[in-house]
Design brief:
By secondary structure, the chain is mainly β. The chain has 2 helices and 11 strands; from the N terminus they run H-E-E-E-E-E-E-H-E-E-E-E-E.
Length: about 200
């Protein structure tokens, strides 16, 4: 009698929502708050139909409290520092970016040019909610295990982000129909911590 009661209770309770995509009790979760102050190692690969394939790796420092981020990376034998000021955005949604290049032979040089914000967006806490992100199920990540997948448009560009159980960005993808361009960025050794203002001082 006890066994029958337990079975019937499981069959007819039907009140618990599930995150299993093909479950009849599935309910889309609310977009989570994410970590907006962190440092991490990253690897990025960008390619398109014009035979462009560009891989870079390095460190990223994200600080929404300072409205800035910084990338220290290397590619093609060049050391590169990229500084992003999210207060300095054009009306058409482009970010003014400062490059500091150093190949260990010439002195550092600075260049300022415009870059679409989705390439390196400010990862503020309510980014997913404010962007109207849609839950796209779970993805099995080789490093972080089961991660949440969220899709949204950022400045008109389709974006997919992958969030681990600690609500940290572990992967960020976006793509463009022009030239069939795709960019994927992975984050490793993520450290939650506030970044000092001095880290974002412009050398130019």
């Amino acid at each position: 009698m006890i066994k029958i009661t337990l079975i019937l209770g499981c069959l007819f309770s039907g009140t618990l929502a599930s995150l299993e995509v093909y479950s009849s009790t599935f309910k889309e979760p609310e977009p989570p708050l994410i970590t907006d102050e962190f440092s991490a190692n990253f690897m990025q690969h960008k390619w398109n139909s014009l035979n462009m394939s560009h891989v870079t790796s390095g460190s990223i420092y994200m600080s929404v409290s300072n409205n800035k981020s910084r990338l220290d990376n290397t590619h093609d034998g060049v050391m590169q520092v990229s500084l992003f000021d999210y207060k300095n955005v054009t009306k058409d949604g482009y970010l003014n970016k400062v490059f500091v290049l150093d190949d260990l032979v010439r002195p550092p040089q600075c260049e300022v040019y415009r870059l679409p914000i989705p390439a390196y967006p400010p990862m503020y806490k309510t980014m997913l909610k404010d962007s109207g992100a849609v839950f796209a199920g779970w993805t099995q990540d080789d490093v972080y295990g089961k991660v949440e997948t969220w899709n949204f448009f950022y400045s008109g560009i389709p974006v997919s982000v992958f969030i681990d159980q600690q609500k940290r960005f572990v992967r960020y993808d976006f793509w463009l129909p022009q030239d069939r361009t795709f960019t994927t960025t992975r984050f490793f050794n993520i450290q939650k911590k506030n970044q000092p203002k001095s880290l974002f001082n412009l050398p130019c």
